[in-house]
Write a structure and sequence with these properties.
alpha/beta, eight-stranded mixed sheet, five-stranded parallel sheet, 13 strands, elongated
Length: about 400
């Protein structure tokens, strides 16, 4: 029966080993693979490495390593596990694999570059385990979510499901803008709140709910009216904005401010039994003004308070907004940039409509004048203009 030494000697006869110096020369051109255990990885690794513990190599290699002709540099603590791993990878069809002789221990002793990675706690690995199992997310993606910042405009029908799912997903900082109080009529659809919170500020109610759901999340509240005097300060520093507003002046104000700050906006709107979602990514796709150069007359766009809304509808649209926000944060899939997703609850149908940037758009077009942030009336002009025709800014 073969011993461990026999198996190791046999594996090393089938692979190619390189010194740490030779391996370092391949940083940037080859993919580095760390096959140690979690506790070893937590203490330090080579920058940019993919982490797959040796015991999971066969099951995770194809999903995490990419093309089989891509050069791979495999390392462990001392060079033995990586030799076995390199042999296994060659059996799996990887054609350019080397093992680092002496492993990470020798790499560190020779003062080559290494980092202490940001890692999840044991409790976080348990909480976000279903995310970590997804190769497209993994532990690195979950760590990115925990470091991300999303601003929600509104803690109402759309903001409620969006905030709940973003908090559950582990988005580290959630900002919530709302200056309203909880009312009985809200509870038919605004699931952040409950009967005990009637009369309470919505942002305070939202913070209580989200903190109880996930203590990892820092909830920042803005109990203010979003206006020209504060919009740039409020949105500054956020990675994505989820728009759950219900009036045109605020949507146009947000559009122009997000263009200035280059922050993508996940737009959502609802009406009776219908909803719409799109992503406005500054200067990569159309903006809100490209979609709607000017607001429709009030009689053609009544509010939910005037026309009603099916209570479950904002749950569907707000959840899609949360999904689009996560896709933007993790660079996943194909976000709704340049597309409008329209949902009809009565037909139970989804339709995609293509949106294109308007070359004559007064906000994002190539010949657009500099954006001026100022209060907008119901006309929502491209730039606020004083009575004498001169522009004003705040």
């Amino acid at each position: 029966m073969a011993s461990y030494r026999d198996l190791l000697r046999d594996a090393k006869q089938h692979i190619r080993e390189v010194t740490p110096e030779e391996a370092e020369a391949r940083l940037g051109e080859a993919k580095f693979l760390d096959v140690r255990e979690q506790d070893e990885y937590d203490q330090g690794t080579i920058p940019g490495s993919v982490f797959i513990p040796r015991g999971f190599l066969e099951s995770q290699a194809e999903s995490k390593l990419g093309a089989k002709d891509e050069p791979l540099v495999v390392f462990c603590a001392g060079g033995n596990r990586s030799a076995f791993a390199a042999d296994t990878l060659q059996q799996l069809g990887y054609t350019d694999v080397v093992s680092v002789a002496g492993g990470f221990g020798r790499w560190k002793n020779e003062d080559r570059p290494w980092i202490t990675p940001a890692v999840l706690t044991h409790e976080q690995r348990d909480r976000y385990g279903r995310h970590i199992l997804l190769p497209e997310v993994g532990e690195a993606g979950q760590q990115k979510l925990l470091e991300s910042r999303v601003l929600l405009l509104g803690a109402g029908g759309l903001g409620s499901p969006a905030a709940l799912y973003l908090a559950a997903a582990g988005v580290g900082t959630l900002g919530i803008v709302d200056m309203d109080v909880v009312d009985t009529s809200n509870l038919q659809r605004q699931i952040l709140h409950n009967m005990d919170r009637i009369g309470e500020r919505k942002v305070d109610s939202a913070k209580k709910t989200l903190t109880l759901l996930n203590p990892d999340v820092d909830v920042v509240t803005y109990d203010v009216r979003l206006g020209a005097d504060n919009v740039l300060d409020v949105i500054d520093g956020y990675d994505v904005i989820v728009d759950g507003t219900d009036n045109f002046p605020t949507r146009y104000l947000l559009n122009d401010a997000s263009l200035l700050k280059r922050i993508p906006v996940v737009h959502g709107s609802i009406f009776r039994f219908e909803g719409q979602v799109s992503v406005f990514k500054p200067y990569e796709g159309p903006c809100y003004r490209c979609l709607l150069p000017e607001p429709p007359p009030p009689e053609l766009a009544p509010s939910c308070a005037e026309a009603g809304v099916l209570g479950v509808l904002p749950g569907i649209i707000g959840s899609i907004q949360a999904l689009e926000a996560i896709k933007l944060l993790l660079d996943l899939g194909d976000p709704l940039v340049g597309r409008l997703l329209a949902y009809d609850a009565l037909e139970e149908s989804f339709r995609n409509f293509k949106l294109r940037r308007d070359p004559n758009c007064p906000a994002c077009g190539p010949n657009a004048a500099p954006i001026v942030i100022a209060e907008y009336d119901d006309l929502c002009l491209p730039h606020a203009v004083l009575a004498d025709g001169t522009e004003t800014s705040h």
